[in-house]
Amino acid sequence: MAISIIALGTVYSEILKLPAGELMPHVCVGLIVWAFINSIMLDAGDLFVGSENYIKQIRLPFSLYAFRFVLSKVIIFAHDFPIYIALLLYFRIWPGAAALLAVPGFLLLVINGMMTAITLGIASARFRDIPRIIASLTQIVFLVTPIIWTPDLLGPRSYLASSNPFFHLIEMVRAPLLGSAPSAETVTMAISITIINGLIATSAVRAWLEIRWRLRFLTDRRRRFTNAPSSTVPACSLVRRPAFSGKAPKTAP
Questions:
Q1: Is the pTM of this model over 0.85?
Q2: Distance CA 5, CA 7 (A)
Q3: Which residues contact 204 (CB under 8 A, 6 or more apart)?
Q4: In the chain, how many H helices and how many E strands?
Q5: CA distance 64 to 55
Q6: pLDDT, tens only, 93-144
Q7: CA angle, 26 then 68 then 114, to 5°
């Protein structure tokens, strides 16, 4: 991660004609936060598929698997965070008290990560091609999101950045760590994204539970029918009665 930050920061500072001391921290925080988001989106497909044995043997809330999954990503994020501190010391940058706003911003990011992991985990358990689609989409999102470039470079087309939900999620953490509070638009968009993610995740869990209940009901019903003893079945139901023709039966002479 450190090598990528130094290489991209140095190259893009020359391409964009920006001072390295200004662009390097921007790229550093952007890449660290993006690595956290990207790892969740890429690995969420195996969230429930990889825990298949636990799900079949023990009844646990699905949120517990998502929490354990996101916690492992938070630990990786904590290992990358010292790179940001090293850049602050090298360029002698002090974000001030605004850096404390990164804590609620990161918590909001973690909540979105958990709900996204649940949604993608459930969808990938049904459709196994979704992880490949997500892997292709994340490459496009990385290029169109202001991670290694600043949104003011778009000029009059800056709306392309403001309409990108990933930009606002990253900015909730990056802006405080660079010494400024997130804008009202960023906060509003981040909260709206969280609500939408919550609704989608809740709908996905309900649909999965309904499907599991139906499958379990049909399985139990079939099992009871196949294992039912023959004595419980009335004998009259096994004998086909002749149709009544309306004529008296013939008697032997």
A1: no
A2: 6
A3: 118, 119, 122, 123
A4: 9, 0
A5: 11
A6: 888 899 999 999 999 999 999 999 999 988 888 888 898 999 999 999 999 9
A7: 55
